[in-house]
Design goal:
Two copies of one chain form a homodimer.
Chain A: E1 4-5, H1 8-18, E2 22-26, H2 35-44, E3 48-52, H3 64-69, E4 74-78, E5 91-94, E6 97-98, H4 103-109, E7 118-123, H5 131-140, E8 144-146, H6 165-168, E9 176-180, H7 185-194, E10 198-202, E11 207-210, H8 212-229, E12 234-240, H9 248-260, E13 264-270, E14 286-289, H10 293-298, E15 307-308, H11 310-316, H12 322-328
Parallel strand pairs in A: 2-3, 2-4, 4-5, 7-8, 7-9, 9-10, 12-13, 12-14, 14-15
Antiparallel strand pairs in A: 1-6, 10-11
Helix pairs in contact in A: 8-11
């Protein structure tokens, strides 16, 4: 089993400092199996621990309304760095860093990076501390390593599901990217934001691979969704109700543009914008999603109708071309 | 298609009276296909309509936090009578009454009621106006009809998923119940609350039937869940976060009783207490559910672990016997 740093001392100190009596523990799926262990530590401090069972995919999803309904005096949010600024309830972010070594995976990435000299390095919050190690391995192999910092996220080199500003800001100065971490989710985001070759060094499986095929497949699917949505007359415009996903003004803008183009558009709001929750609205022929853009991009096949990002909807309306949209990014503002 | 009374005039008047600019429309699954039609009426009044996509099973689930996050100035809640008292956001309840005739179904119920003289009549909010018609049909057949009113719900004779006080209050004075409405959900609740013979007169399919077998099957399943939970050492105590389902004090009481019996118990909170959201906590061997009791009773097979009502948990702890619990009801306070 992987070991994560849950910073239990910091949690205890924050409970003591605030005199917290009810502490809401919120964690993404992969960390929930550790919840009881952490709850015991919280209760050893004299507070009641309440474990959130809701799905949690990012720091955008900080459990503010849940905490208010529970009269919690502290949220401990695991697995993500701070994103939403709020003063309603004290929130402690435990990034759950892992100490897994990245040198083997990085060395395995070198053959895939053979044609590229200038490498942009990026990772998710869990592996930030390994960027030095990876930089060293790449430099030893004669590469120029660049780590971007656009100032929007907590850390240089960090990417999150919906924000690739740190890699975009160095796009003109690199030939390819190396992403350190598990899964293809973040690396796919890098390709969609930059259209550059991107290699994954996976320290869990100690392997390296490219995701060019997956990215091309996804772009084909997006092209088809836009083509299908061009036939639609009635659009549902999705408003996300997670604290960092509520872009009501953007939804109103989409509604207005749709109506200017002679289309019908109505706002639909929800916390969990999952396919099941859209099944009961047969009259909508397509959706425009203003919440987390990854809802549109990562499992479009699960939705029965096209579910477009705002940028993609602009292609449907003819406001921009497919090529212009790709240049901007599928979901960049 | 069934026709419902959406009281569009009353909606328009309330929007005008409040000068509402953002109106959240919330409806159960069966009414969502009417959402666009209602949204158009709202927008004709100069307000923006926002349709909630979240599942909604009762007036306990009134969308308060969602409305606050959307700065809505009016909630229009369809399909249920008022239940939660709150002053945060104006809420209009549209019960969506149907005008379907119940005389044929009531006549078909008569053979099934042959052995019973005194009949307790009950229905869901949609069919309240048909109680007179059903009373007439039963009286014509020589029955004594009683409609209960315990004062807890909006209307005499009304039952909702978690409250059968109107039928319990007349249990000593009736031989059997006749429930007017579709599906077995409410009638099953009547049996679980009263242990009396209960017949359904379904005006949609114009048929009548008993649900004794379904009730016996469910009680067997509950008995087995309690037996399994007696082996558990670590319990998850579920706290519901829908406004009318948050029984934090009850959850704390369960935790305390569990610990007094040498068991581990931790609080788990969520808005949607669905099986998928409990899969990530393998260490819990059983759950005690303090939210909507029907979560425990209506699809236990979907949960991988026993999911008990609070009353059932008292049987697990040996505080009351199975027979005593049945007499009180599986979920009555």
């Amino acid at each position: 089993m992987l070991s994560f740093d849950f910073e239990e001392d910091r949690i205890r100190q924050e409970i003591m400092r605030l005199g917290a009596k009810r502490v809401l523990l919120q964690m993404p799926q992969g960390l929930k199996s550790h919840a009881i262990k952490i709850a015991k530590k919280v209760e050893a401090c004299g507070a009641i621990a309440i474990i959130s069972v809701a799905p949690c995919y990012g720091a955008c999803d900080i459990a503010l309304s849940e905490s208010q309904e529970l009269d919690a005096d502290l949220i401990v949010h695991f697995g993500h760095a701070k994103m939403v600024k709020q003063r309603k309830i004290p929130a402690l972010y435990i990034e759950a860093k892992t100490s897994v070594a990245v040198d083997v995976a990085t060395l395995k990435a070198l053959p895939l990076l053979a044609n590229y000299k200038r490498i942009g390095l990026a990772t998710s919050v869990q592996h930030l501390e390994t960027l030095n190690q990876a930089t060293q391995s790449l430099s030893d192999a004669g590469k120029d390593v660049i780590i971007g910092d656009a100032g929007q996220l907590e850390y240089a080199g960090q990417v999150i599901g919906c924000n690739y500003s740190n890699v975009k800001t160095i796009a003109d100065r690199v030939d390819a990217y190396l992403f350190i971490g598990g899964g293809i989710f973040h690396a796919l985001g890098i390709v969609l934001a930059t259209s550059k070759p991107t290699i994954i060094a996976d320290p869990y499986d100690n392997r390296a691979f490219t995701i060019t095929n997956e990215a091309q497949q996804l772009l084909k699917q997006r092209f088809a969704s836009i083509r299908d949505a061009k036939k639609a007359k009635t659009f549902g415009v999705l408003v996300g109700l997670k604290p960092g996903q509520n872009h009501f003004d953007s939804a109103m803008k989409v509604k207005t543009i749709a109506e200017e183009h002679g289309l019908s558009a109505f706002l639909l709001a929800g916390k969990e914008l999952i396919p099941e929750n859209l099944l009961d609205f047969p009259a909508f022929e397509a959706y425009v999603n203003t919440a987390c853009p990854r809802i549109s991009l990562d499992s479009p096949g699960k939705f029965q109708k096209p579910i477009l990002t705002v940028n993609e909807f602009m292609v449907v309306c003819g406001e921009v071309s497919w090529q212009q949209m790709l240049k901007k990014g599928l979901f960049e503002k």
